[in-house]
Amino acid sequence: MPRRAPRNVLFDKLRTPRRLTGFLKTASICVLVAGLLSPVTRATAAEAAATSNDYCGGQCSDILPPGENGNATLAQILLNQAFGTQPAHAEDQLGPYAGLATGYRGLTDAKINTFFNDASFGVPSDQVASTEKPAGRGDVTIVRDKKTGVPHITGTTRYGTEFGAGYAAAEDRLWLMDVFRHVGRGQLTGFAGGAAANQGLEQQFYRDAPYTEADLQAQIDNAVAHNGARGQQALTDADAYLAGINSYIDASDSGRYFPGEYVLTGHKDSVTNAGTIDHFKITDLVALASVIGSLFGSGGGGEVDNALSLIAAQSKYGVEQGTRVWESFRMRNDAEAALTVHDGTSFPYAGRPDDPKGRALPDAGSVTEEPLVHDRTGSAVTVSAKSASDAAARTSLGSARRGMSNALVVSGKYTASGRPVAVFGPQTGYFAPQLLLLQEIQGPGISARGASFAGLSMYVELGRGQDYSWSATTSGQDIIDTYAVELCQDDHHYLYHGTCTAMDQVERKNAWKPTVADGTAEGSYTMRVWRTKYGPVRYRATVGGKKVAYTTLRSSYLHEADSIIGFQMLNDPGYVKGPKDFQSAAQHINYTFNWFYADSQHTAYYNSGDNPVRASGVDAEFPVPAESAYEWRNWDPATNTADYTPPSAHPNSVDQDYYISWNNKQAKDYTTASWGDGSVHRGDLLDDRVAKLVAAGGVTRTELVQAMADAALADLRAEDVLPELLRVIGSSPVTDSTAAAAVSKLQAWVTAGARRTETSAGSRKYADADAIRILDAWWPLLVKAEFEPGLGSDLYTAFTDNLPVDEAPSAGHGPTGSHAGSSFQYGWWSYVDKDIRAVLGESVRDGLPQKYCGGGSLGACRDVLIGTLKEAAGKTAAQVYPGDDQCSAGDQWCADSIAQRPLGGVKHGRISWQNRPTFQQVVEYTSHR
């Protein structure tokens, strides 16, 4: 019998099953429920897991909305669709998570677990909800707690422990895991339906990782072969984990409590139980890892866009001045940027060479995107399908990696207890169920609790050990380079070291038919990628009149499984005993992340990723010729291995006074691939608050949570740029009544703290609503009026392709679309800040090459701002917030609100906007081993 019947939900980009709602009728639901409900609980256990290995003293907490339970039977889906009822533990972490937005000001240490879970090891005996021995094994027990239903897995053997981890993962996320193994292979539409969003999702990831089954297996073999005993242990762990998943598949199939989405998508018959749920295999884990790495752990890839904007700058200003203008907007190493390592230590990487060599800039007007989708039929030909393809290409081809992971870590020297305090977590979007799952794993060589990506939870990936915690943010340094391969013979042959070589064609043919879950009409297409030794082809162009293909080469390409060793180490209490061990473990993670650590004595930071050693003179910002002189040092195309910068060259630190990260610049001279690391960054929202706390001393867990929560409600533009704009406007009396009223509202908002927050909990109305509406309307207008006249329309447009003007909460952006929470990561705030300060006559370090607002005249700049402000003030709420599939036009709160994007059949309500990690920890250890 299952501990409970699972329930489930499709992915952000997976279409919400609209047909389902109309299809269901109340009477039929009652009949179906009676026939489909299966036993849902196990007998309560009396024993709690041992906690003698827990050194946090009850001061470790975590949260992961909406809830642990991510599987739903067909009956549970039907009940949710008809009546809104929720399966047990499907959303019990959503309310506390949302409540912090209005509850943080009255927070105390004693109230922290009102908004977070107690993340202590084990389960008190009176809090045990169920216990089970998966598949009747005697070497592993899964205990679930009453409050959240999180699995606490305890094994007496390593194999049993990992078997239990796989079994528990399938109990909580089987449908989601199945979805993503298909996403990773570019086979989503045939599995889950042909909705336009599904088409876009599989295209996005297949473009990044067009692997064959042989490629996937080779990555496993390579990771095992090159990591000795740990590699062999990882393989054994993975086999046991897969055995646990497959055991649950068999049990849920025969017991008929498998996720109901298998019925709704046509894979299982609800009456006869005909159909199959395919067992998981080891290559599925690599397919899953490729999705996660592409989303959150790979920086770079925007070299062609960079080349196009450089050409536009040089066309307007000439080569020398155009290059200077381009570099000023690129802000590779801005002196005013917020830094994670802020003690002045330099970590040079990917900076501008003194004498750049080998730029392979395209001839003007010659660049075309390489088509991915061919032979469209049926619903694949629709406008919405083609629009989804365009969006997928933009997401895949750009250098911006969106997410709002953040970290606040304070050394014990500045805390009230004398022990370090940390509040940190990753942003993985908001989904139902969540991409991550919570678990505790205790067994030989493993002792950890925290979050792991569903289907990859052999180890805890972000969480705590016995006496230490760790977390990560996306770092985005450049590990992807673009090569211009010269074509020969035809469009599918290229010169490799002087020899005309055939490209490798890989393709995926997908077809779909309408189902109950997705009524998209029948359709099909073929995704086709041409691969070279320098990576997949992304664009075609001419360089100096010669035909080339632009390819992208990622250092983690063909190495999606390598990071497993680092995570294995982080879970091993015998390996991690202090900050240096933590840094050593993080060095084995080849994806681009910032890693943070805290125990009772120390804090630490390390930036991970396989940073390739580039040839002398190569500028990482631009395409280079596909010639040996410009290849990565000691690069082997057969294995895609090369020389990488040593660990000491990566930004790292131990016991700095404090660390903050919100996807900002890591350290002095360390260039990230994305644009926007300038004088105003959302990292400043954390840095300003934490620096103030540290200066005062005596920092507590409560104060650090409050700093995070306050920053999570702040409008970056209003807090850091709007005061300067108002100073320009106020340089002379404002006589226009419309402008004066708008200024008054904006000033009052700034004085009140510039937050986007409800008037009261649950009101669904913003305090300072008019001011927020005005700024949301004003920002894009003022940026264009400020910069386009000076830059010219061509260069202005090219720069907006490199860096979007705005990223307000209501904007649709990144892989998660609108209602995704994450905001203010990319925008023109630094440009506006530096330009306005220059117009005001203030000192600006690393300023722009000229004054743009009003041509540098304070009076003319003021006229520009007042003119655009009046236009913005005249826009109605319905114009500023036009409505979407979630919200009616003019509903400001709803436009900003966070939606748990359904990945299957169960839905949840929206919550008020917060700019905050999805999974989050609050930790302060009391002792150390």
Give an overview in words:
With 929 residues, the protein is an alpha+beta fold. 35% of the residues lie in helices and 17% in strands. The protein has 28 helices and 30 strands. It has a 10-stranded mixed β-sheet with strand order 3-4-5-12-13-14-15-23-24-26, with helices on one face. Strands 7, 8, 16, 17, 18, 19, 20, 21, 22 and 25 form a 10-stranded mixed β-sheet that branches. Strands 2-1-30-10-9-27 form a 6-stranded antiparallel β-sheet. A hairpin with a 2-residue loop joins strand 12 and strand 13. The longest helix has 28 residues. It is globular. The relative contact order is 0.15.
Key words describing this protein structure:
929 residues; alpha+beta; ten-stranded mixed β-sheet
Summarize the structure.
By secondary structure, this protein is α+β, with helices and mostly antiparallel strands. The chain is built from 28 helices and 30 strands.
Oligomer: single chain
Binned, the helix content reads 25-40%
Broad shape? globular
What are the segments in which pLDDT stays under 50 over at least 5 consecutive residues?
1-50
Structural class call reads: alpha+beta
Could you tell me the number of beta strands? 30
Mean pLDDT figure: 93
How would you summarize the topology of this molecule?
Blueprint lengths: L17 H6 L2 H11 L23 E4 L10 H10 L10 H10 L8 H4 L1 E2 L9 E5 L7 E6 L5 E5 L2 H27 L3 H5 L3 H13 L4 H13 L2 H28 L5 H4 L17 H15 L6 H15 L1 H12 L15 E4 L18 E2 L3 E6 L4 H15 L8 E5 L10 E5 L5 E2 L3 E8 L2 E8 L8 E3 L3 E7 L5 E9 L1 E7 L2 E4 L1 E9 L10 E10 L2 E9 L2 E9 L9 H7 L8 H8 L6 E7 L3 E5 L16 E2 L26 E3 L3 E4 L6 E3 L11 H15 L4 H12 L3 H5 L1 H8 L7 H16 L16 H23 L1 H10 L26 H11 L18 H16 L3 H4 L11 H5 L4 E2 L17 E4 L6
Parallel strand pairs: 5-12, 6-28, 11-29, 16-25
Antiparallel strand pairs: 1-2, 1-30, 3-4, 4-5, 7-21, 8-20, 9-10, 9-27, 10-30, 12-13, 13-14, 14-15, 15-23, 16-17, 16-22, 17-18, 19-20, 20-21, 21-22, 23-24, 24-26
Helix pairs in contact: 2-3, 6-10, 6-12, 8-15, 9-10, 9-12, 13-14, 13-24, 16-17, 18-19, 21-22, 22-23, 23-24, 23-26
